Fold this protein.
Amino acid sequence: MNLSINYLFQPSLNHFNCHYSRHFFLLPNPNSKSFSAHFGHTTTTIKLKFNGPDSPKPTSIHTKPASDVNPLPYSSLIQDCIDSNSFQRGKSIHTQMISNGYNPDAYLMTKILMLYARSGCLDDLCYARKLFEEMPERNLTAWNTMILAYARVDDYMEVLRLYGRMRGSGNFSDKFTFPSVIKACIAMEDMGGVRQLQSSVVKAGLNCNLFVGGALVDGYARFGWMDDAVTSLDEIEGTSVVTWNAVIAGYVKILSWEEAWGIFDRMLKIGVCPDNFTFASALRVCGALRSRDGGKQVHSKLIACGFKGDTFVGNALIDMYAKCDDEESCLKVFDEMGERNQVTWNSIISAEAQFGHFNDALVLFLRMQESGYKSNRFNLGSILMASAGLADIGKGRELHGHLVRNLLNSDIILGSALVDMYSKCGMVEEAHQVFRSLLERNEVSYNALLAGYVQEGKAEEALELYHDMQSEDGIQPDQFTFTTLLTLCANQRNDNQGRQIHAHLIRANITKNIIVETELVHMYSECGRLNYAKEIFNRMAERNAYSWNSMIEGYQQNGETQEALRLFKQMQLNGIKPDCFSLSSMLSSCVSLSDSQKGRELHNFIVRNTMEEEGILQVVLVDMYAKCGSMDYAWKVYDQTIKKDVILNNVMVSAFVNSGRANDAKNLFDQMEQRNTALWNSILAGYANKGLKKESFNHFLEMLESDIEYDVLTMVTIVNLCSSLPALEHGDQLHSLIIKKGFVNCSVVLETALVDMYSKCGAITKARTVFDNMNGKNIVSWNAMISGYSKHGCSKEALILYEEMPKKGMYPNEVTFLAILSACSHTGLVEEGLRIFTSMQEDYNIEAKAEHYTCMVDLLGRAGRLEDAKEFVEKMPIEPEVSTWGALLGACRVHKDMDMGRLAAQRLFELDPQNPGPYVIMSNIYAAAGRWKEVEDIRQMMKMKGVKKDPGVSWIEINSEIQIFHAGSKTHPKTEEIYNNLRHLTLQSKGLGYIPDTSFILQNVKDIKEEEEEEYLLQHSERLALSLGLISLPKKSTIRVFKNLRICGDCHTATKFISKITGRRIIARDTNRFHHFENGKCSCGDYW
């Protein structure tokens, strides 16, 4: 036969490349004298003669029949192609074999099967399957080849089918079979299958095999069976970092951070060399544990192992330092990274946002874009967080527009971040709109909007959203949902709703969670349910610093200061180091105890532990020293602080104001170069809280004239100021400013303050209008409206609101019951009051406090059931307080019961000997009975004890100016006109049947002539204010008079006659309630 052979010897490759026609053969040994090649049904032997080192020449060719062909050369060639991944060349050889009619034996056929199965091409896999099915006999290698091939393309169902067929065919699995089949069971989440395979592995004696055992470890770890994973790990002979990584990853998956760290530490000790995945996992563990020291150790180790320049590890380092609040190290790692990728930028931007350095996050975002990286859903989410943190609604809306333009606004992650951004900026309506526009919602988006509602105190909307979450989208609440709802209940002191959420937690089986349990402790503490809080705290299997802090704060807030101090010591004995929050609570306890010495001890602890530069501690220290009367220490802490932020400035200004050093406060305020809204709010609130109302209001006017923008908090402070004055005209003007600024429906706190202001200013109708127009009402809003109705004697309206609350998903709390019981008391609804008092304890499980018992005593006493009232006091489960005996004494005054009044008064003289009220009331009771000697005895007793009656002060608002009157005032420019008007009205009143009750002047005026008694009655402060209103305000306008004490009985009678004579509506507010006088009648029905 004629052959054309091309040959080329390449010494550098140490082999021949020979081409016959279009076929390529490898000569494995260049020193061979000959080689064999297959052509059709013959085998040709080519002998070579070497004339030189670089020029071999064929010298002879010998052929023999194909029946004598040895298949081994084909097998070698196919294996070479498999080993070198030269699959196309291997297929060409197979094609030539077919075209030449060569039938391979079982051994060669298995090699060909491997060739096609391993190529990675699906068409080749299908052909391999065809060859496999056509094989008359299949050995274990063939089965393993196909099982592995399907595992490589993730067709795990076919892996399991083939494995089943293989076992049915009588073939036994080996170390190559099990890893693929175990991998398939893992992918199919077939936990039972892994268990069965483990038994087979043990029977085969392969559990010690590195690859088989490693597959089992991976399976157990992925399913969370960590004890089995560790057991299998221990059985393996040899080490593989991949297997150790699987165990670490398994512990990380189930958040068992300590165990994950233990495995990492163990692998280092036995000499297993970590890879980048190991280090990244270990850094994640340190971040989760907030273990900066552990993270530093891992950092040093990875540098020693040569992974400093690994980008994957560098990203993990940034994330770890961010979680450990180590911004300096975080930025250092970022700056030293030689190569950064998109994840790197996302991580550092996210870190800066988490640190609260939102401006820095925005700067890094711009640098990222300048470096050629694009914004994506991850970094945009961080930037939205930064916008929320800066309350930069402008930037947030700009990002929103970017998302809309790039069709990313429907992305669930970014959509949820938008909801979160709008919520944190206080724009819950916009947050709601974005939420509703999302094509898909998850627990994150629900929780973001829920947090917004809670932040704004919109309880109704929050609870409705909670129910929609489950009913509309079928999403089960998670721990963040429940903790947010518990925060809502804590903020509103709504323990009834809190107990319902607790019940939901139990049904959802989420109670055994440290975060949830801690929030339950916090909620019950805030609601005054300290027993519940202690029970949960005591049974917690694990407690962190926040858990201890919540319980300590609970004790402190509920007046159990000594118990708070005891628990603070116990926390340290349990190995928990006090942090800023626990120390803040303890410093607050020192304020409660007025114990500056203990405060100084805590101050020394702070200094010893180098915590003095913590901003919050500086603030609390200044506050503690100031409230304990140690202003020199307060100033020293403030003055030595290097970085004085606006909060510290605010506290120092407030400290000066509260200590009566208003000039020092103003001087410090004036010295500050940067006076922002918060600082203005501080000085406004400081003056207001100290009772310097005029100064506070004047500062507000000064603020309006400056460039500083007032905010919601400013308006809340000034609206509350109008409530305390009260000043309706100012309140109306403020309401207009609020509407103009767009603050309506954006703050439930502000709207509730308006309700309260209008109620206290005598405009109950306006209060109800504001209440009805509120988009979101919380328990405080409902209580303000019900309390307003109660003070105005509108018991019917109060009861209607009370009955409506549960229908709106709002459940009454102890403050609600106090208001509604007071309403019943003011209008004599005894049976209704008794029913509500019983319902409070039995239906709502609210334990009655001293204030509630006082309301019940007042209710029974005013109704004339004095014996029942007395019996109620005697059977109280708690010791009656001053207010309780005071209610009984007041009832005795109304019903002129001198004997029982004497009993109540005696108890009050013992409990509160310096309070002038009981002396005055008892004096009135004696005077009404004509017991003038006893009246004189009371007067002498007050003189001997140094008790002075509080001077009566009344005021009225005329043209936005508060006009103040004391008894007998004669300094007003219209004094003569005021008195003449009163004398004239008195004469007219007498003509209608008015008889002056001169007994009301005997308690504080003596040696007065009988003919002068009526003139003294005209000098009462409330009557002077009323007269000014009559001569100064437009006709037909309502006159509103306010008094700091209970309105005089004679003045009450006279005002009824004056309302009839003048045809004017007169509203008078005293310490007990509002009196609405109209056409000769009072809304109280003389029942006050």
User: Anything to note?
Assistant: The radius of gyration is 44 Å.
